[in-house]
Amino acid sequence: MPLTQRQPSPLPRPLTGEASSTQIDTTLRTSSPAYQSPSTPTTPAHSKHRTPVPYLKLLPLLVQRCAEGLTYAIVFPYINQMILDMGVEEKSVGVWSAIAESAMMGTEAISAPFYGPLADKYGRRPVLISLMSMWGVFGVAFGFCKSVWSTIILRGALGLLAGCGVISRTMVGELCDKSNRIQGFAVFSPAITVGMTLAPVLGGFLADPSGRILPTSWRLFADYPYLLPSLVTGLAAIASGVLAIILLPETLQRSKTATTLHRDSEKSSNNGLKGLLKYEPFQNVLLLYGMNNAVMFSWEAIYPLFGFTSKNLGGLGLSTQALGLVLGFSAGLSIFMTIFVFPLLHGSLSESTCLRLCLISYPAAIIFFPILWAMSYPHSGDDLPISVWIVMSIQMIIRRIGDFATTQLDTLVLDSIPGPEHLASANAITFSIAAVGRASGPFVISYFFSLSTRFASPFSPGRHLVWIIFVLICIPSLYFANRLLNESNTDNPTKVEGREEERYELISHNHHEQQVRGSSSIEVQGEDAVRYRVV
């Protein structure tokens, strides 16, 4: 029977007290059809029984996510040396390396929204496996680059395969249900950090291997000194594709009705993708998400550039191998702190205080850059005093506290969407906005670092202009966070009711054609609050 909306269709009024809870529980137990979200039909949110996480099915998605982090970050230890070897003068290396790094994120921002409809039409699994295969090919091809423009083009080509991240995240949501989705994403989300942890160590160790870890007679690796790390990233992507063929099921069938309605809703100017973008809570989180990614990935770009650049130009002058170890240690510290420190910090502070503390940690850590340079300036090469390494470690810890904001924002994104049927659209939009931040932030900060190297005296204020700019880049995140948190604390009932009405319209549009059996009314209060009657 068709599930239709009562007329008139006001939102159900909030229920309070023990009687309200009893009414909800009784209604859910006595109703013949239980309300279920289209993507998670198996377990009610309030159930005490948790569905086991399908770790084996998730394995290809975890490997893909790890390969994504590996591909993005493996170039950090050697990209500056690679650009320098192509004939670019040292003062301009920062600009060209930033363009090469940002090209990947720029094309990701453009291409990400197109993969949702493509996966809806042809299926998640075939599209994802095809993208994984192409990812492997382009990843290996990057190692054969001999010019600056070829590196930019191939990094941009890798960004065009952004559907891997969009589809894999959507499939995790579809393979899990409400009872175990948090656990599923708790495993999936850090996988990219694992890849970014291994990447700098592998990149620094495997770059230019001829005569060091491989015989000089292996001319292929002598002629293409950065091919070996590219082979590792390409093979990792191909391995994830093979695992997907063997272990990963198609998840589109489970939500066939929902995706059909999703495509219909996107045609409406008031619902679907456009409606989601007009939904105010999602707008606020989206802006903060983009700005935070700009700051976080500015760190990923500036840190290796600062470490690589010679001391006379404002850097530390570290070797590729030493820089790889430093970056690997920093990423490993990130995993350790996310697992052991963040739960303690988050549990002892309020949500708003914790988020503000994380965002303030970024500008606090930036102050250490000129201090590190001044302490290392009298020393040459990798032979730095222990005091420099101690200060560097303190800076890493403070910076990694800032990275906790990403974990909080991932949760806020899920909480800000009006219903689970908007998961795929929300993933695509946030992926694009994050990619814009990842592309613009590193480019801007690397450009100003290159500009600061053009001042004659290493002790001139202009030489440290980049750190002032970096602090300024952090300010919008703090502004948007304060606005978001203040609005959530001061919302009046009229504003909340307006948002709930907006949320109701988005949900009901996507559910009004759902087929159900039975003849009793269903009333649900909670995340997907909406009132229906069966006719």
TrEMBL record:
SUPFAM superfamilies: MFS general substrate transporter. Keywords: Membrane, Transmembrane, Transmembrane helix, Transport. It comes from the Eukaryota. The keyword Transmembrane applies. Residues 1-50 are annotated as: Disordered. Residues 57-489 form the Major facilitator superfamily (MFS) profile domain. One of its GO terms (molecular function) is transmembrane transporter activity. It is found in: Membrane. It is a multi-pass membrane protein. One of its GO terms (cellular component) is membrane. InterPro entries: MFS (IPR011701), MFS_dom (IPR020846), MFS_trans_sf (IPR036259). The chain crosses the membrane at residues 127-144, 150-172, 184-206, 226-248, 284-302, 322-345, 357-378, 423-445, 465-485. Residues 18-45 have a biased composition (Polar residues). Gene3D superfamilies: MFS general substrate transporter like domains. This is Major facilitator superfamily (MFS) profile domain-containing protein. It comes from Kwoniella mangroviensis CBS 10435.
